[in-house]
Structures are given as structure tokens and as C-alpha cells.
Amino acid sequence: MTAMGRRAFITSCGIAVGGLSSRRQIFAAQTAASPSAGRATPPAGTSRPNILLIMTDQQRGDCLGIDGHPVLLTPTLDRIAGQGVRFTRAYTTCPSCIAARRSLLSGQFPATHGMVGYRDGVEWDAPPTLPQVLKEHGYQTWLVGRNMHQYPPRKRYGYEHMVINGREEGDYEEWLGRVEPEGSGGYYGTGVMHNDWTARPWHMPEAFHQTNWTVNEALEFLRKRDPSCPFFLTVSFLAPHPPLVPPAPYMERYLRTELPEPVIGDWAEPPENDGLGMGQSASRVHLQGDALRSARAAYYGLINHIDDQLNRLLNPVTGVTDDNTLIVFTSDHGEMLGDHYVWRKSVPYESSARIPLLIRPPARMGLAPGAVVEQAVCLEDIMPTILSLAGIAPPETVEGVDLSPLMRGEPAGTRPYLHIEHAPLHHTLTDGREKYIWFVADGGEQYFRLTEDPHELRDLAGKPQHAERVAYWRRLLVSELAGRPEGFSDGRALIPGVEYAPVVPKT
């Protein structure tokens, strides 16, 4: 890839704020080969589990203590992993909010549900969603916190009730306006905005922070829920998505700590003049010194703060008081956090595309605690997995894979690779061990061997000794994209320079 092409690509990621037949054929073949194909595996026992889905926004896959993070404290999340299953190669197939959350709700890949990049204000004619299916099977369905970033914000997509934040129009904003100290200026009173890399401590009492409010609302639901039926509660945090404004103790903790530096690949190019003059929300900037330390400290502080608040929610005295609750924790996408001179998301690199995924079933289901699954999985797999563990067959519209056999240590028909994309930037294939990236604008390529190079420090696409593997992955992408309406592939070769909009054009 040319320097100019790569620079244009990276720069465009800040602005950005199939292969269907081949994918379905692969999935169908795997499903047919599976002994449990076409049916859900009923859980042991007689009652369906309660389901608690916890979702953060913009949390990297490596930002867990149990994943080996050198400084970040996440004892509550580590406990979920220790009691359940941790997926070390979980990915979002479109690393931005709207598309990723559609995939989680529907179990469908971006090209199927139609959102392959970022565009606000597009109403979704959704297939059967996870909360909708659960509601039809007798679950009380409830969402608190960050809405699922669909349009209009109050559209429920199967949730019976939502208590949400929404920048200007949410329930949190209304509540904060009633209780905040006079002159505080609301949630954005610090001047740090929702896509900024600038950071500072929260300017009001911690109890007024959005993270605390979200857990308060979740606890209120648990106190007042209908005890005659199982519940599906989604607890959705805005953090660690900017604004980077954790309560002061959390930011101070990491400012006192020797923080890891961003990783910089031998292929990455610093922005001109280090990105100075581009503004606080620029996605391509080389932060150094206090600016870098503040941003990283605040990001880790937001995650640490969430973890402490989750300890309130998962406390058997005050929160989840039963042993019949299935807990799932994940995020919609990651955060570059300065890696390779990039901030925010949209790009295919591990910091942006890899996400945490923890699943803790009730003990009665008999799964061994502390299991680790290294196969590549994705957000689309959460819906069929939850339904399977609840004894409910997924609708035919679902493209994700039931992960419960992997959780039991059994052979399962997972995909040979995942397709990650984001308009107007890239198409990417990975199996968690290798990664191939194709840039739509100029046809540039990158190839990484993740097993030996997990931080993507060495681009091997131009190395003669790796030409055969690059060609192998290119052929897979040619097949994956054949038939897409954008015209990325003619079935024989990839075609660069075609128009690539966030919404898949209708044919």
C-alpha cells in the first residue's frame, strides 16, 4: 500500500463518524455437520435462566486484568471470567456503534442487516431480535443505560421498557438536570466532548456519573421486576467511550501508575506535524507526554469505575441474588488509544476490532469454570448462544453460531474465518491467527501473523516468503465479496475504487 493511500485511509476513519452466498454456504455446511444442528440445547434443570447482558461501549479486548493487562484493575469482570468462559479472540465484524449493535441484536452480519459503516438517522426494519424472541418466550425484557444506538432512539426492538441516556433527550439527562449542582453545565460541562482524546476528572459528585446512574437503574429493575417470569436485562454503559471523564480517584490512580505506551507498527506513519491543529476529536494524532498519559489514564479509569459499579450489581445481597442467572459481558468495538498513531475505532486493527467476551452460565448447567476458548468468534454469535442456553431455537434469520458446544469443550462448527468491514475503508479477513486487510480506495493490502505478532507490528504483505498466504486470503475475499451490490469483486479479482457507502445499496 502506498504511503499516500494509507494516510488517506487512516485519516478517513475519523470522517467515517457478499459474499453473502459464500458465507451462508459455509455456515450451512457447518450446521449440517454439527450433531446438534437445527435444535437448541436445553439447559439442565427445569427453569429457564435469567439473563443479564452487560455491554460497554468502545472497550478493547485486551482491557481486562485476566487478559494480562499490566495495570488495569477489573476484579469483578475477572470473577465473571473465572466462573465462566473467556473468549480470547472475539471480534466485532463492523467496528463502530450502530452496525455492531445491530449485529448483536439480530445475530446477522453487517452486509445482511444493511449497516456496514457509520450513519445516523437510518431506521432499521429489523428481523426477529434477541429481546423480541425472549419476550415471545415469556421473558421480561428491559434495557437500562446506553441505548442500542438505533433510530429513532426510543424504538425498542423487542425490549418491553427502556431507561436510557441519549446525549440530549435521554432519561439520564432529564434526571441529571434535576439533581446536578447549579452551574455545573450538565454532562459536558467539563468541555470534554463525546469523541475527544482530551481528558479530565468528572466535575460533579461521583453519584451523578452516568455509570453510577446506569447501575442504579439496573438495581431498581431487579427490585421491582415480575418474579413470576425470567428476566432479560441489558445493562449498557456509555463508558469507556469518550468523553474521557472518570471520577477523580479513578483517573488519579492511573496517573500515578507507569502506563503502557501505544504500540507502533513498522508500517505506521506519524501524522504531519504530529496532528497538531486538527482538534480534540481528530482520529489521527501523535499524543505525547501529559496529553497521552491523561487520555490513557482516563480510559483505564472509566473501565475500573465500571468494574466497581458492577460489583454492586453482582452482589448477592443487593443485586443479582439468585444462582440461576446467565451473565454475558461484551463491548461493541474497541479503541485504538494511540496505537499506530490512531484514536477511536472503524479500523481493522486488533485494538479497534477485538472485543472482550465473557459468558458465565448458571452452575447447574455444569460447565467447567475458568475455561478459555481461542477460536475466532463474533458479536453475531451472542444471540444464538444465549437462546441455546435458554433452551430456545434461534430464528432462521440468525447467521451467528451457537458457542455453547465450545463452552463445553466439544468440537463445534465455527467458521474458518471472520469478515470484518467498515465503509468506506476496508474489508478484512481473520481467523484470529492471521489477518488480511484490503483497502477499498486503492487496493492496498496488509497481512499480519497474529500468533507471532499480536500487536500487528510487522506488515508482511510485501514479503516474498508470505506471498502464497497473502494470495490465499485474497482468493477468500474475492469469493466473500462476489455478488455484493457495491461491485468489490467480479468473482476473479478484487476491484478497488468503487463507491462504498455505510448503508448497503438495495438491489
How does this model look, in words?
The protein is α/β, with parallel strands linked by helices. The protein has one domain: Alkaline Phosphatase, subunit A (3-Layer(aba) Sandwich). Helix content is 28%, strand content 15%. It is built from 14 helices and 15 strands. It has helices at residues 3-12, 19-33, 75-83, 97-106, 110-113, 130-136, 171-179, 210-224, 248-255, 289-313, 350-353, 382-389, 404-407, 467-481; strands at residues 50-57, 85-87, 90-91, 140-146, 161-165, 231-240, 325-331, 354-355, 357-360, 371-373, 377-378, 418-422, 426-430, 434-439, 445-449. Strands 5-4-6-1-7-9-2-10 form an 8-stranded mixed beta sheet, with helices on both faces. Helix 8 runs parallel beside helix 10 (289-313) and helix 9 (248-255) crosses helix 10. The radius of gyration is 22 Å and the shape is globular. The protein starts with a helix and ends in a 26-residue tail after the last helix. The model is unreliable at 1-46 (pLDDT under 50).
Overall helicity: 25-40%
Which structural class is indicated by helix and strand composition?
Answer: alpha/beta
CATH superfamily annotation:
Alkaline Phosphatase, subunit A
Q: How many distinct helices?
A: 14
Mean pLDDT: 90
Cα-based radius of gyration, to the nearest Å: 22 Å
The CATH C-level name is Alpha Beta
Identify the overall geometry: globular
Helix and strand string, N-terminal first? Answer: HHEHEEHHHEEHHEHHEHEEEEHHEEEEH
Largest sheet: 8 strands, mixed
Query: Strand order across the biggest sheet?
Result: 5-4-6-1-7-9-2-10
Do you know the CATH topology? Alkaline Phosphatase, subunit A
The low-confidence runs, each spanning 5 or more residues with pLDDT under 50, are 1-46
Q: Tell me the distance between the termini.
A: 32 Å
Share of β-strand residues = 5-15%
What is the CATH architecture descriptor? 3-Layer(aba) Sandwich
